[in-house]
Write a structure and sequence with these properties.
This protein has 119 residues and is mainly beta. It contains no helices and eleven strands. Strands 2, 4, 5, 6, 9, 10 and 11 form a seven-stranded mixed beta sheet that branches. A four-stranded antiparallel beta sheet has the order 1-3-8-7, with no helix packed on it.
């Protein structure tokens, strides 16, 4: 019913930048919150940044990453600057969506996009 598709991942050198995008589609009545998470090999998935009225960031990315949303396009972005090798992970998009059909709210995840930062 709802699909989240991430794009923009890739390989960069330390200090470089990438911009991730997440496009939501399907039976969407409204989106209450969206967020970016990441999971590095052997580690648990962790919150990177979220937008639910206000924005919140993990301490490790504050000042380097910026989350933004274009609600008209049902798209969320993550601008990542000054990337470090420890930012290497699969980045996932998450959204809390109220469906057009039932007006019930559910959480959805994208399939992930790989970000690799080399030193």
């Amino acid at each position: 019913q709802v699909q989240l598709v991430e794009s923009g991942g890739g390989s960069v050198q330390s200090g470089g930048s990438l911009r991730l995008s997440c496009v939501a589609s399907g039976s969407i009545f409204s989106i209450s919150s969206m967020g970016w998470y990441r999971q590095a090999p052997g580690k648990q998935r962790e919150l990177v940044a979220e937008s639910r009225g206000s924005t919140n960031y993990a301490d490790s990315v504050k000042g380097r990453f910026t989350i933004s949303r274009d609600d008209a396009k049902k798209t969320m972005y993550l601008q990542m600057n000054a990337l470090k090798p420890e930012d290497t992970a699969v980045y996932y998009c998450r959204a809390e969506v109220r469906l057009t059909t039932t007006k019930l709210q559910y959480q959805y995840w994208g399939q992930g996009t790989q970000v690799t930062v080399s030193s």
